[in-house]
Specification:
mainly alpha; 10 helices; 225 residues
Length: 225
């Protein structure tokens, strides 16, 4: 009987270790998870021969005694794990827990290039971000401002503003601001009052009966429409 149980243990322990290794690969979705499960696997590899030795010298009682002794030695670790588990919900309120932060575009490099007067490089940096976040309003309006204000390329700025207007679920505030800036560029760069008025009329068309339409109507009055 002991020989049969010993043979079963010799087969079972490698299977358990292999199963833990496979489970580690499945659960290791990030670097932290990989480290955690590699530690678990290492402990399993160390414990497997020790369990086999305990079985060889003491049978089931040897296994139970080994587990009990290891458990006593690991009491401080279990206490630490338990305390961390209790504190985890509180810590998550401050650091977000283990959730991965949402990806978001950044335009620091583009803004720095713009301040230096390197507008082509600034546009390139913006387009790199827009390739990943094509509907990002901040990137689009920054691109339009460089085109309309710095490069005096009103047609290009017009195209970027149209892209903003065609973005689904665009906020009324963003629509009104984008068209208002387009009107500014028409007046400042080309002194083209008809096109400026067209941009303001578009605010009234897209956002009727809103405060933005009222502001556009007042500005049209000042332009002498």
């Amino acid at each position: 009987m002991d020989i049969v149980l010993e043979s079963v243990m010799q087969i079972l322990l490698p299977v358990v270790v292999a199963g833990l290794a496979f489970y580690a690969l499945v659960r290791a979705r990030n670097r932290r998870g990989a480290i955690w499960w590699l530690v678990v696997l290492a402990l399993a590899v160390i414990a497997a021969p020790l369990l086999f030795i305990a079985w060889a010298f003491g049978g089931p009682r040897g296994i139970i005694g080994f587990i009990f002794e290891v458990g006593v030695l690991l009491i401080p670790l279990w206490v630490l794990v338990f305390v961390c588990w209790l504190a985890k919900p509180i810590g998550a309120l401050f650091d977000g827990g283990n959730e991965e932060p949402d990806a978001s575009p950044f335009y620091y490099a583009a803004e720095a290039c713009r301040r230096k007067g390197d507008f082509d490089e600034a546009i390139e940096r913006i387009q790199e971000q827009l390739a990943r976040f094509p509907e990002d309003y901040r990137g689009l309006i920054l691109l339009a401002e460089i085109q309309g204000e710095n490069l005096k390329d009103i047609p290009a700025a017009q195209g970027t503003i149209d892209q903003i207007l065609n973005t689904p679920n665009q906020s009324p505030k963003n629509i009104a601001f984008a068209l208002g800036r387009l009107a500014d560029w028409h007046l400042a760069n080309g002194h083209d009052a008809p096109l400026a008025r067209a941009a303001l009329f578009r605010v009234m068309e897209l956002l009727p009966e809103t405060e933005f339409a009222t502001a556009a109507r007042e500005r049209l009055r000042q332009l002498g429409s």
